[in-house]
Design brief:
The radius of gyration is 33 Å and the shape is elongated. The chain is α/β, with parallel strands linked by helices. α1 packs across α14, α4 runs antiparallel to α5 and α8 packs across α12 (355-365). The chain has helices spanning 16-32, 78-86, 99-111, 123-131, 135-149, 159-167, 190-197, 221-233, 249-258, 294-303, 318-325, 355-365, 369-382, 387-407, 440-503; strands at 2-6, 35-41, 54-58, 60-61, 72-73, 91-94, 115-119, 153-156, 175-176, 208-212, 239-243, 263-266, 272-275, 285-289, 306-309, 330-333, 349-351. It has 3 domains: 2-180 and 388-438, Rossmann fold, CATH 3.40.50.2000; 190-384, 3-Layer(aba) Sandwich (Rossmann fold); 443-506. β12 and β13 form a beta hairpin. It has 15 helices and 17 strands.
């Protein structure tokens, strides 16, 4: 099948959903043999040509200050839509409810095929961060939900994600389709672990805790630091590594300094900046910065004893499965989406959403490394799922949807045939009727006129070149004739002068 994947993030922006889209595209192209095209907003200076599938990078607006480093794509890009329409997709799969889904709906109006939408994150949290609470947030959420409702099938990455979507006003059905992990099952080599972590002070006899992801407060990171402060106050030693970058990193580092806990911070040049705390040793808490190498991330997960992930924001928590792939168990909040499939004390640990509860668990397990490793091994056996298995399940569902669509058995969700509500997810959202209607014949007519103009232009260039060659030839011939006539005239003059001189006796 021809598969069109749309998402608002893609390299050079790396986040969980971009990782999903890249794995879908790679596995469908290389392992399944499908044809894939990816549509995403363009980032200045980014290279989109070195992928095993086609990437259509369409124009975007700079909203990086408003939405934490992300640009907003223009879903009305005629060129981008035209390239994807020419691909003739059998399925359109959009992974973001903003620009990507607007573009998916416009594209679907041209190629007439099913749209699948996957709900990955609690976008109401991101909207609140961008526009604040109140009217704008409410109207933006309504517009996003309407966009999602226009898709033919809605997937969620967990039951908790589905319930969150329902709480925002979505009234349709959804299907749980779990994301996978691109880590192979098993630990990184001891050599790689040593190479990655040897620059930090990580004594073997102390528990080492790990967090990997965006350094944002809504991931529950203040709770981790508060819990570690409780351990420090009790004289319990440990090491904590935060891997990732994010807007709240400086604030969280300052919180560590206020608690007078020794801090190591890796700067943009890769240098370790050490803060010696009162009565503390170097590097008790480490902010290691972003890490894009998958093998080096495996090394961090292999070296750690527990993965701390007290997030109630994340709907799936791929990082929890990545940790499990390396035999690393996680500490999670009871009832959170990331905790689905976790049995407390067996393949992970479940706590209340308080610093005291986390500190109590870490204190209890601090000298029980064998127990932590047993839980990690159970996580590897019980909650790990590879991307290969996940993507093949998704592709099989694509086939079922296409068959139902071809037979007329697919119940279309879309409630409007030609009215499209265009939203700007960055600042303000307005729903308007008949704002955008791009009939196929209008676009095809424009394309036909352009193709005809190009053909005429090529013919004109050929005629101009021929005409120029003719002129050059005529000028050359004319010049040669003039040269020959001048030579003959000169000879005649010389001869007449000679005869004149001879008659005069000279």
């Amino acid at each position: 099948m021809n598969i069109c994947l749309l998402n608002d993030s893609f390299p050079p922006i790396i986040d969980g959903v971009a990782n999903v889209v890249m794995n879908y595209a790679r596995i469908m192209t290389e392992d399944i043999g499908a044809k894939v095209i990816v549509g995403t907003p363009r980032y200045p200076g980014a290279d989109y040509d070195n992928y095993p599938y086609k990437v259509v990078a369409y124009p975007s607006l700079d909203t990086t200050e408003l939405v934490a480093g992300y640009r907003t794509g223009n879903p009305l890009s005629i060129r981008g839509i035209g390239q994807m329409a020419a691909f003739k997709p059998d399925i359109i799969h959009t992974h973001c409810p903003a620009s990507s889904t607007v573009m998916a709906r416009i594209l679907e109006n041209q190629v007439d095929c099913p749209i699948v939408f996957t709900y990955h994150t609690k976008f109401d949290v991101d909207i609140a961060r961008a526009v604040g609470e109140g009217f704008l947030k409410k109207e933006t959420i309504k517009a996003m939900v309407k966009n999602i409702s226009a898709c033919d099938e809605v997937w969620v990455v967990s039951e908790g994600a589905g319930e969150n979507l329902k709480s925002l006003g979505f009234e349709g059905n959804y299907r749980v389709v779990s994301n996978g992990v691109d880590f192979p099952k098993g630990k990184a080599s001891p050599e790689t672990v040593k190479e990655v972590t040897s620059r930090f002070d990580l004594p073997e006899n102390l528990p080492t805790y790990l967090f990997v992801g965006r350094i944002m407060k809504y991931k529950g990171l203040p709770l981790i630091i508060d819990a570690l402060n409780i351990l420090s106050q009790k004289g319990i030693d440990y090491r904590m590594i935060f891997v990732g970058g994010g807007a709240d990193r400086e604030e969280l580092e300052n919180k560590v300094k206020e608690y007078k806990i020794a801090l190591d911070s890796v700067n943009e040049k890769g240098e370790i900046e050490h803060t010696e705390a009162a009565n503390g040793k170097s590097g008790k808490i480490i902010f290691a910065g972003p890490e894009h190498s998958r093998e080096r991330l495996r090394a961090y997960n292999t070296r750690a004893d527990l993965f701390l992930f007290p997030s109630v924001y994340d709907t799936n928590g791929i990082v929890v499965r990545e940790a499990a792939a390396c035999g690393l168990g996680s500490v999670l909040i009871k009832g959170s989406c990331a905790a689905e499939g976790i049995t407390d004390g067996r393949n992970g640990y479940l706590i209340d959403e308080t610093a005291e509860a986390m500190a109590e668990l870490l204190e209890e397990t601090a000298d029980k490394k064998d127990e932590m490793h047993r839980v990690g091994n159970c996580a590897m056996d019980e909650i790990y799922i590879s991307w290969e298995d996940s993507v093949r399940d998704a592709y099989n569902r694509y086939g079922e949807l296409k068959a139902m669509f071809d037979d007329g058995a697919l119940q279309r969700r879309r409630k409007h045939s030609s009215d499209y509500v265009l939203e700007t997810a960055s600042i303000i959202i307005k729903g308007t009727n008949h704002v955008f209607d791009l009939p196929r014949n209008f676009y095809d007519g424009m394309k036909e006129n352009f193709d005809e103009f190009k053909e005429n232009w090529d013919e004109l260039k050929t005629n101009i070149n021929d005409f120029t060659d003719d002129i050059k030839g005529n000028i050359t011939d004319f010049t040669d004739d003039i040269k020959e006539n001048i030579t003959d005239l000169t000879d005649d003059i010389k001869e007449q002068i000679f005869h004149g001189d001879k008659k005069a006796g000279k």
